[in-house]
Design brief:
This protein has 110 residues and is of the alpha/beta class. It is 48% helix and 15% strand. Helix 1 crosses helix 2 and helix 3 crosses helix 4.
């Protein structure tokens, strides 16, 4: 999970990001998505995984996924989730593909 994802989740729950990070049962991710991608790059190499998909599962986390993919484009492919019935669905998809370079879209609800 990216730092931004956890911040978005905290906001949805009416909690502080610091509070959510303190409650994690694992090491909090670095704020820089490229730094988190570097951690995953090492982990995947240790397990001989050559490619992986990263998924922005909350609206607003597309930038984090795009930054991670940009840091390791040969390792990661970027995807995002979008509700096709949401009023801003077309704008979000256009930005994610055209501006951020994400490669796949998961429709939710499908």
């Amino acid at each position: 999970f990216s730092h931004n994802f956890l911040s978005l989740l905290a906001a949805q729950a009416g909690r502080t990001t610091a509070g959510v990070l303190a409650a994690l049962p694992f090491t909090a991710p670095p704020e820089d998505p490229a730094a988190l991608a570097a951690v995953w790059d090492i982990e995947l190499s240790q397990h001989r995984v050559s490619r992986a998909a990263l998924l922005a599962s909350l609206p607003g986390d597309e930038d984090s996924v795009a930054a991670a993919v940009a840091a390791f484009p040969a390792r990661f492919a970027g995807y995002f989730m979008a509700n096709p019935l949401a009023p801003n669905a077309l704008q979000r998809a256009t930005r994610a593909f055209d501006e951020l370079g994400l490669q796949g879209l998961c429709l939710f609800p499908a």
